[in-house]
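Saturday, quiet lab. Running sequence design on the structure tokens for the scaffold JK sent over.
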């Protein structure tokens, strides 16, 4: 048994003692025996059933409830308990799941059992287990704030279904600041835990059942560049409105769609070539000229004005977003 478990056991013992004392006072017992049992006279004993039926508040140290709350969010649970076979989470895969609340309750029971060494401890566990579960649920929103320094979830529903995903990909290692946006009917779903378990595995837990989850590159991923479709031979550039026309769709920075679903592109953006040229570097002057030609008067106006700032607008590549329309089965 490690030091953390010994400390938890000690605090559970103290909690049991306080509960026994509170129960003794509720039952108006004159004293408590050295072994924790209550001494009562005949008259007092007659009043015990009624007194014992009164609810006794739970005195559980914050350190205990916080530890159990972290356990409820799978902190300290060996990874092989979550993924018993590597084939369940191959490279470049994502797995969505529910957490069985019965499994979590049994995990809490198991953690509480380390402080159970007598019949009195058993009575404590059997008497206060529902209050212990409630205290742990109330402590769960604090975990992400205390462990990771993240903002405490708002609009959290105590006792709501806990869902989540495991994501194994080179994206996790390549972008340490990945953002996850879970929503249900376009309303945010609180995040209970979002953490990298290893260099390429991310775990997320949500307070509720989202119907859409977006995984986004960090905002600092904003950069200039051009794109190329898989296996394509040339690079393309998706062009944007610049505010030169009276067209209602001409909102500067928004992508141009001449027809629905067909974005306007500069196909075959030129790259530098020749001796000493680095591969993959854009030929800026030629690219700017081809953008002007592609946009033409329809998008630049009759004078075809095109400034360096507008060139920057056209060259910006925003951080990538991968949406998932999630359909959790069985719910």
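Result came back. Writing it out in full:
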């Amino acid at each position: 048994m490690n030091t953390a478990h010994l400390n938890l056991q000690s605090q559970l013992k103290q909690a049991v003692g306080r509960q026994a004392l509170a129960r003794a006072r509720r039952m108006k017992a004159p004293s408590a025996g050295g072994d924790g049992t209550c001494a009562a006279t005949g008259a007092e004993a007659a009043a015990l059933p009624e007194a014992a039926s009164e609810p006794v508040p739970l005195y559980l140290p914050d350190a205990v409830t916080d530890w159990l709350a972290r356990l409820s969010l799978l902190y300290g649970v060996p990874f092989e308990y979550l993924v018993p076979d590597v084939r369940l989470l191959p490279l470049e895969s994502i797995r969505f799941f529910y957490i069985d609340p019965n499994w979590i309750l049994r995990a809490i029971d198991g953690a509480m059992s380390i402080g159970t060494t007598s019949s009195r401890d058993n009575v404590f566990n059997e008497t206060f287990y529902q209050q212990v579960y409630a205290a742990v649920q109330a402590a769960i929103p604090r975990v992400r704030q205390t462990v990771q320094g993240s903002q405490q979830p708002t609009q959290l529903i105590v006792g709501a279904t806990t869902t989540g995903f495991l994501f194994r990909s080179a994206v996790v290692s390549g972008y340490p600041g990945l953002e996850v946006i879970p929503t249900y009917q376009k309303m945010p779903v609180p995040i209970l835990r979002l953490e990298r378990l290893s260099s390429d595995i991310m775990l997320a837990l949500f307070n509720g059942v989202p119907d859409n989850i977006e995984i986004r590159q960090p905002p600092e991923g904003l950069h200039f560049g051009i794109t190329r479709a898989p296996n394509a031979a040339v690079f393309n550039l998706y062009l944007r409105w610049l505010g030169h026309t009276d067209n209602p769709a001409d909102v500067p920075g928004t992508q141009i769609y001449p027809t629905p679903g067909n974005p306007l592109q500069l196909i075959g953006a030129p790259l530098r070539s020749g001796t000493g040229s680095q591969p993959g570097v854009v030929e800026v002057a030629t690219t700017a000229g081809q953008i002007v030609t592609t946009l033409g008067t329809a998008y630049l106006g009759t004078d075809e004005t095109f400034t360096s700032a507008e060139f920057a607008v056209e060259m910006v590549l925003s951080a990538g977003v991968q949406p998932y329309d999630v359909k959790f089965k069985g719910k």
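Notes for JK: The chain is about 35% helix and 20% strand. Residues 28-53 have pLDDT under 50 and may be disordered. Ask whether to fix the surface positions before the next round.
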